[in-house]
């Protein structure tokens, strides 16, 4: 079985890079704390959706 785990949901403080590294699937506005999905969140959702569909078909 092949799997994937994304590092983090939200951009956060990284001890080595501070706030410079934005690794999350959602960006966070540091002033308002509003969260917005990045394009990578849509891509990740599509991978999960496709995998679930393939898994359901294989179980038949």
Features:
alpha+beta, 1 helix
Write the layout of secondary structure elements.
Blueprint: E1 26-28, E2 35-37, H1 39-59
Antiparallel strand pairs: 1-2
Question: Can you walk me through this structure?
Answer:
This protein is an alpha+beta fold and 60 residues long. A two-stranded antiparallel sheet has the order 1-2.
Write a brief structural summary.
With 60 residues, the protein is of the alpha+beta class.
Q: How many extended strands?
A: 2
Query: Which stretches are poorly predicted, pLDDT < 50 over at least 5 residues?
Result: none
What is the percent of helical residues?
Answer: 25-40%
Number of helices: 1
Mean pLDDT: 84
Give the termini distance in whole angstroms.
18 Å
The largest sheet has its strands arranged as 1-2
Major β-sheet profile? 2 strands, antiparallel
Order of helices and strands: EEH
Shape: elongated
Global structural class: alpha+beta
What amount of the residues lies in strands? 5-15%
């Amino acid at each position: 079985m092949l799997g994937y785990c994304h590092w983090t949901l939200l951009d956060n403080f990284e001890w080595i890079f501070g706030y410079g590294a934005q690794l999350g699937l959602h960006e966070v506005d540091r002033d308002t704390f509003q969260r917005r999905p990045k394009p990578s969140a849509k891509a990740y959702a599509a991978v999960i959706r496709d995998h679930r569909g393939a898994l359901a078909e294989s179980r038949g």
